[in-house]
Amino acid sequence: MIELKNVSKHFASNKVLIDVSMTIPSGEPVAIIGPNGAGKTTLFSLISGFISPSSGEVLFDGKAIPHSEQFGKLAVLPQDAQLDPRFTIEKQLAFFSKLQGFTKSEGIAEVSRVLGLVGLLEHKTKKPQELSHGMRKRACIAQSLIGNPSFVLLDEATAGLDPVHAKEVRELIASLSKDITFILSSHDLAELERLCQRVFVFEAGSLKQYSGDGDTTSQAYLTLRLKQDLDNLDNVIAELNGLRNLKVTQSREYLIEYDASVTDFDIQLLQCLHQQSIAYQQIYNGKTLENQLFD
């Protein structure tokens, strides 16, 4: 578990983080979001032990970071992580294994293990320039998995990737999440929505935490995206049993609030849309992450 207790970080007169307290238990992936300059990179540096807080405590399993027991249990992959074009993937990862204390034979086995996890074992003798952009990113993620850490910090894991390669990286993270707690920093809310149930939002160095819908059990939400704008959707669904409120969140997107005790509300909605010949693009159970954070 990672804990921050009343952590502040100043660089001269610049206050980057202000009295931040948060807990990240092991388990499901966690998202860190916020605009540029919100303090995300500084937070990663504090958790990694690269820098120390100006005040407060950063703890890993109850002990102040950095400490010897943290070694090998927490890994960081910066956004601009690069592979050396002069060496094969296998040779580079073997070098990083050696830095972590593996013997030569142990390092060879560990390199095979992590490359197998990211689906690159058959490409181990290739140099970075022989791999696609997405494969190079997966190789970098393999580097962060050396030593079987319990927490891995990924900064903008899919930045610069095309949709196909970004999907590959998301699927990789999801597949590894049963054994590793990923802490993800990204500007892509749609990406985080696919991966994370818990989100920490930073604004001007301060923390606003969101976890789950946070709504009472008496209300529930559906997000409806239509294929075209409809001015009178409120009138169309007005008679649905359990309807509480309808809100337009953006063009062709509607947030529908209903009574959670009405368990067939989604079926009612689908039947109503069908009867009125209204074409929809997507129905999302709950609020989108964007609406959860900024509604």
From TrEMBL:
Which domain of life does the UniProt lineage start with?
Bacteria
- Establish whether keyword Iron is in the entry: no
What is the name of this protein? ABC transporter
Which Pfam families is this protein grouped with?
ABC_tran (PF00005)
Q: From the UniProt record, which GO molecular function terms apply?
A: ATP binding; ATP hydrolysis activity
Specify the ABC transporter domain's residue ranges: 2-229
Question: Which residues are in coiled coils?
Answer: none
Keyword ATP-binding present in the record's keywords: the answer is yes
Record's InterPro entries? AAA+_ATPase, ABC_transporter-like_ATP-bd, ABC_transporter-like_CS, ABC_Transporter_VariousFunc, P-loop_NTPase
- In its UniProt entry, the species of origin is given as Pseudoalteromonas piratica
Keywords, in A-Z order:
ATP-binding, Nucleotide-binding, Transport
Q: Which SMART domains match?
A: AAA
